[in-house]
Fold:
Amino acid sequence: MVPAGAAAGSNIFDAKTEQGSAELYFHYYGMLMHQQNMLQDMTRTGTYHAAITENRADFEGKTVMDVGAGSGILSLFAAQAGAGKVYAVEASGMAKYAQMLASSNAIGKAIQVCHSKVEELALPPGTQVDVLVSEPMGTLLVNERMLETYLYARDKFLKPGGKMFPQLGRIHAAAFSDAVLHSELLGKAMFWQQPNFFGLDMTHLHQPALEGYFTQVVVDAFDPSVLVSDCATRVLDFASITEEELYDIDIPLNLTIAHPCTLHGVACWFDVLFNGTTSQRWLSTAPGLPTTHWFQLRCCLQQPLLVLTPNTQLRGSLRLVAHARQSYDVHVSCTRRRHPLHPAFLFLLPQASGRFDLKEPYYRLTQWAQVQAPQQQQQVVQQQPALLPALVAVPDPAVPAGMGAAGAGAGGAAVAAAGVDGQGYWAQAAQGPGMACMLCRRCGGEQGGMACLSGEDVKGHGTGMQNTVMMCVGPGWCTASAGRHLYTCAIGNNTSGCGIGVVGGCKDSAGSTGIGQQQATAVV
Structure:
């Protein structure tokens, strides 16, 4: 069985890979600038160097194969560790540079560069090796599907009981809350909301554009404080896993959400283990550790989930399905435990899901202010990221002029402080009698009524925003740009003048029938 979209070819690699994808892949890795990017990742390169040279007993006098050798750096490390023979197998045009590098270093005489795909490699009959070394990891460990080539080399060339560097990998997943990221993706699609773009109506393309932005995985280095749950982990043992098992990888999500928050999606990272005879080392891409060229990855759900109680159970799955473009479709599903049966909670959706293309990421490449040694060479132990610190109560900021008190407009407790005017209605889009509510639209011509994505509040009736939690901004209030509170504010059922303000310093001053909570989802 090979993934959908693959065509027949001269070998197993060609049979499961689109030709155009393969051509771009080998062209990319045939360029020195891209090899340099990987070599300059000192966490990556330093960890490989330490893992190999510290385990001289596994290499000295042994026959080694470097699978996907690139510049030949791992082959040279193996030679430094005393390898008697190293097959450096590289399919791209980088093979000629690997040969130049080997020839220009004295230890390179042990290296034989093979310009070939591993699946097409012709060695003398019966040739087997003692050790496999490789750097087959892509984004989320499995992107580019190089792991399958690593396993092919294991099955065809590795002696029984031979060593693999690395020996296993782990994919980790945790829930995250990041209103800034979610609003950023919403904002990107707002370009298509223009009814008069050089005289043209662009609005009909807004929905497909919005869906497109929320099918991209987000690659960046995020602050570990955005994590709001424990981790789910899937172990891939390279010594025993089959290639077919990599075609469809299912990671159950059985998570505990530590604190009330708006859950915006699932964050992922990976690590690999070098299990040598003398020493063991982890190479990790976890948030909070020195950033690598892999960064971390997030799947941001278009429809977030609201979590109102501590230690809420989240169930779901992260499923990776391989395709012929050397990558995966990522399917995320999350189901939150239903909140207590109180009328105010009934409109909160308990489920959210999304499909993402790992091949087409959004390289956000932001860096949070982490403190690390300037020359971090290697990683010795695996560290788990800290959970989001305990939420703290944040006093309400001053209410801007022209807006009713937070959650206490003349029409009742409305929807807390997310753009409610003095009559208890939603503020108009950009300059109404109350605060502006970003990314919302007026609905049906009703005065003071607004449709905010999936919810609406027409003249104080209906549900405002339902479970689509987004950031509403106004001068001095919940503004991300000013570095204030990352609030989503504003969900609420305002059917009787008693709403619910549940996140980010919002409150319902109606008291007896309203529900108020004044805790921030995050503070920056």
